[in-house]
Amino acid sequence: xxxxxxxxxxxxxxxxxxxxxxxxxxxxxxxxxxxxxxxxxxxxxxxxxxxxxxxxxxxxxxxxxxxxxxxxxxxxxxxxxxxxxxxxxxxxxxxxxxxxxxxxxxxxxxxxxxxxxxxxxxxxxxxxxxxxxxxxxxxxxxxxxxxxxxxxxxxxxxxxxxxxxxxxxxxxxxxxxxxxxxxxxxxxxxxxxxxxxxxxxxxxxxxxxxxxxxxxxxxxxxxxxxxxxxxxxxxxxxxxxxxxxxxxxxxxxxxxxxxxxxxxxxxxxxxxxxxxxxxxxxxxxxxxxxxxxxxxxxxxxxxxxxxxxxxxxxxxxxxxxxxxxxxxxxxxxxxxxxxxxxxxxxxxxxxxxxxxxxxxxxxxxxxxxxxxxxxxxxxxxxxxxxxxxxxxxxxxxxxxxxxxxxxxxxxxxxxxxxxxxxxxxxxxxxxxxxxxxxxxxxxxxxxxxxxxxxxxxxxxxxxxxxxxxxxxxxxxxxxxxxxxxxxxxxxxxxxxxxxxxxxxxxxxxxxxxxxxxxxxxxxxxxxxxxxxxxxxxxxxxxxxxxxxxxxxxxxxxxxxxxxxxxxxxxxxxxxxxxxxxxxxxxxxxxxxxxxxxxxxxxxxxxxxxxxxxxxxxxxxxxxxxxxxxxxxxxxxxxxxxxxxxxxxxxxxxx
Amino acid sequence: xxxxxxxxxxxxxxxxxxxxxxxxxxxxxxxxxxxxxxxxxxxxxxxxxxxxxxxxxxxxxxxxxxxxxxxxxxxxxxxxxxxxxxxxxxxxxxxxxxxxxxxxxxxxxxxxxxxxxxxxxxxxxxxxxxxxxxxxxxxxxxxxxxxxxxxxxxxxxxxxxxxxxxxxxxxxxxxxxxxxxxxxxxxxxxxxxxxxxxxxxxxxxxxxxxxxxxxxxxxxxxxxxxxxxxxxxxxxxxxxxxxxxxxxxxxxxxxxxxxxxxxxxxxxx
Lengths: 654, 269
What we know:
By secondary structure, chain A is mostly beta strands. In chain B, a hairpin with a 4-residue loop joins strand 5 and strand 6. The longest helix of chain B is centred in the C-terminal third of the chain and has 16 residues, at 218-233. The radius of gyration of chain B is 20 Å and the shape is globular.
């Protein structure tokens, strides 16, 4: 049974579309993906997740999302059961998935079934189309920032092909919007998708999918005569075999390979620094679903061989190369879970996951129980309670603090044991006015163990004595809060408001004298509004507003001069706050043609319409006064990555 | 009920400006001590070079002691020092292996620090190479006596052959960690923060470069290595800085009192 808990409002053609979700999780199918609002000229399925209670993506330039006080590396995105390590392009503006290529998306943050491991905070399970297309079709978007196109090609009655591609021309707009003096950027991204679908005459389907995405940025900084290149790519290939063994037993087997590579090249004053990292995943899984009278049982096994090359440094500044040795890891998990409805007013979704993780030197075994009990009070209201224990073996090292691609992964070890989360939530949802008004709220409390903070400086990374493990700290965390949502949906007008009041704290022996401090994901208030209005068949208007309390950061409190350099004295770790983050975006689409099979429309999207400057860092700047004998003055400066971004695009399907 | 089970409590020692004494003191082998003193500035306020100069401490009582004697340093005006004022000694000259105690009394408060001068070493060789018509690069070879020693390179330039710089600035990437074998290093021009857009690591053909190559004690390495990262990456969001260099000065001051075992070189193209 699915009951609306967090309902995201979507622009409808003839009827308003609401997102069916399940006890704090969200599910979107292909037709609902099509109805999503435009962001920066394109429809983006992943972007909508940012308008979900408990999810924060509230910093310009930060491509990560933060779920229920968790860290950015505690979320995983799956494409046909295979992990995609960089699910977004261009500072999080676009997801790497071409929306028409997707058949559905499930976002799990509350009740995460036992079949999902890998991540502590959320799982975004995306699926390509699973059935062959019946006719040839083209769908796409040609805009100022990017062009994407997807096509569905029937091969025969039971087989078909889905192709998609995207290419950006962001260099000009990146240079125009990135508001940094003495700073040049050349940025491009692209992605390609290919899915082959075959339905067997006997019950069953084969889905072979391959996805590739890449981002490349060249940076030129006048200061220090510096330039740099940052590039990364993700290649994911999987094959899923679905079979209906009997009418009540279904089986899904998957094999996959994911390769993620990342390279940072910095040239500072004619000195070169290189910092590559990589992950190679090879995995297989099998899930069997048994449908009984009052219960559905899932049982299965996952195995992943993960070869991790943690970031290492090579520089012309020093003769030392810190080539980190490759980490060979094996993660195996077996699980069983059941959805059971013993009574009309009682639903139980319970499962256990037993995971075993082996590295060259260590073995970890963890037992992960998960349970959700829901009680439908009447036809429109229900309450539920969830408990999840999750374990994450792949550790994410957040070097940059801004979710940049220099961040990298490494394996758990005895020095940095697996991260563990205990999550508890209690929710209530209701609806009224003939199911047009919905509201829900959910209390959550999470305890996090063995979370990471990284504290190495660039100069020590280049030193012969650099030892990564010295600068990776393991600590504990705690997050709690209240998520709430209200939505009103009519055929012409939809509005939804999400508000989250939360705290997220961390405690490390080595940081802030062992005292607790606010985590980077700690935002006291987080508000998002999303509204869509269809005044006529020709027009679709939508608007989104995002507000979040400023992120915690370690602020300089004073500045002084030693050695001829200006040195900042920093206050307590994460003891200060950036200004509050907010922006209003609007989008208007004029449909030249729109029906079930064909559409053509012109979209204009405006990001941050009131040009609000949301700083990503605060530093100082020196200004020379040449009139007065080259005297300088120094003042604090808020660095914003971008403000107003316009976009126009032609959306089509035929 | 869930909210009341919270057990972590946020607590911060310092989130706003606190006035501190800033000390940059040095005693080289064979030379008398020199100490610069200033007061830090509130980061949230805009200020000018003049205001920064006004934060230089002029009327402190600064003494340096070795095991046998104590000398009170005299305050001189010297525009070549970043603070334009420097406290200098005359009688006590730095000796290799000896410890020196610094004492500062100012505004009713007192600060202390102790340092030792390590044994100096020489650069194995120095080379110059023309990179462009008017610019040249300096590189040098280091052959450490043992792998437990830290080093630091400073330099200053002069276009007037008669004027020897009185203060040498830390070079860019000039702090060298222990554990190094024989290897070649580049001697980069010190960063000029007030004219950062025109900065180059190379030296101009008219410039004569005065270089010091110093062995430094552990506490000085701890300070200068973090200082170097703070100065190079203070505007870098990708490799951010939020660390304070550890000081060996007592009583809440910032900075370093450092003994340098130095050898000196002059390079002219």
